[in-house]
Amino acid sequence: CSFRTKLAAALARCRIKHGALSIEYILPEAIRKQEQRASALPLCVWINTFKISPQDVFRDLEKKGFTRVKSVSDFDRYTYCMDQHCHDVLFFPSSLKDELLNLDLFADCKLLLQDKSRSLAVHSAQALLNTDDDIIVAHVGSHLTIAHMSALTIHIVSRIFVCGVKSSAKAAELRTLFSHMGCENIQLLHEDFTEIGPRDPRLQKAKVILLLPQCSGLGVGNPVDFILTEHRDAGLLRDLFQGSVSEDKLSNLAERQLNELMHAMKFNKVQAIVYCTCSIYPEENELVVKKALESGVKGSKVQPYRLIPPFFSTCSNSESSEVFFKIEPSEISSGCFLAILAREKDSSESVSVKDTLARAAAKGLLDNIVVRKPKGGVKKQKGTQRRCNIPGSCTELKTAEFLRHQAVSKVKAEGSMFKTVSNAQQKNVTRPKSCVQLKKSTDPVSDTALPKGPQHTPRLSPVGQACDRPALAGKARAEQERVALKPAEIVLPPVMAPSVRWHGSKPRLP
């Protein structure tokens, strides 16, 4: 209490000295304007799909009187909207912050408040992963970023390796937070990212690196809160109060960012790197990426890196060039920079069908695939439906349904081809009555004129068997509905008419 009293007294003396009406007026004018803009920014939250599905969130908000609108410009008190880039991110009016934090959805960690730049980064990394691929998070940063990454990757059986957890107390704190949020696929590493070798046996299945380096953070709406929650360099607070970052500080940040990006490029097994900052300076953004690519670092006996376009579509407040994704700070959004580096494709490298479908499902290309309901009881159907309401949780079901749909289409096509061939062959075979037509004689042959032999049931000739095939067509079609037929080529014998010789006016059969 004595320290608080001394601090309050010091602030009071400083306020009187500068003639400030309140403590806020002690801050530079640029910082005050930035604070005002930050207080008016829409609240960005993401859905923790470990605990609740988006559909349940929408129903819960509707019961509480919230109305869903198309965009931020349509906000009117108790309203919210979906983000244009991330399917699990919502926006709320800033005036509802206190009321939202008191809702059960926030108290139970079902909705989590975080800057949008982190959601863009984790969604970019998740879109690059295949089944069983691991990911490296180069910095601890906020535990919310790691938890969001975990929620997006749990359905593809990925592990998340988080670097830089130095103390056991910090590790225990993070494990408690992750357990409370439902995360189970996170592994903590005490080494810094630059201290880990590219051939570390623990990271041989890692295919993507998420690099969120320390930056000036001037692109976010509230830089002070960002530095504290992301556990960034507190020395930046002095520069922020001055309204800008000094050249020496900016140069040191850019050099550190370049070293980390070049170190990430040395991992032979890694196929892609997501680089994201909240800076407005090109020295920390485009220039760092270009210098890293020009350095020629790529690892041993692997393909070099190149920039690939972002996975997000452009919107009114974003600038998406061919290789970079940028959002400039505005009245409705914070600013950020994002770049994706991927290794050039090897012409001899082949991607499995399973990985291709998994990546397509991650990008939402299989959302139109409807998973067939199981034939079990009602409880089983409800459980399946609830799991599929979670984005990405039914990726394997969608993949299996897609493959089943392709197999059924192939069987139907083959059955149709078989039916066409059979019909064509049946048309070429006619009944015996039409095959052999004898002229009626005025003196027909009597039964006594024909040679007698043992009486027995006559066997059908190949021609007769062919003529009786239409009678069995119905049965064959019934069996075809139950058994998937394979295409087969049927060769029927040629139609041979009995030979007839004429002696005089009476026919004589051999």
Automatic annotation (TrEMBL):
It comes from the Eukaryota. Keywords: Methyltransferase, RNA-binding, S-adenosyl-L-methionine, Transferase. SUPFAM superfamilies: S-adenosyl-L-methionine-dependent methyltransferases. S-adenosyl-L-methionine binds at D192. GO terms for biological process: methylation. Transmembrane segments: none annotated. Residues 440-465 are annotated as: Disordered. Pfam families: Methyltr_RsmB-F. InterPro entries: MeTrfase_RsmB-F_NOP2_cat, MeTrfase_RsmB-F_NOP2_dom, NSUN7, SAM-dependent_MTases_sf. GO terms for molecular function: methyltransferase activity; RNA binding. Belongs to the class I-like SAM-binding methyltransferase superfamily. RsmB/NOP family. PANTHER family: METHYLTRANSFERASE NSUN7-RELATED (PTHR14663:SF2). This is Putative methyltransferase NSUN7. It comes from Leptosomus discolor.
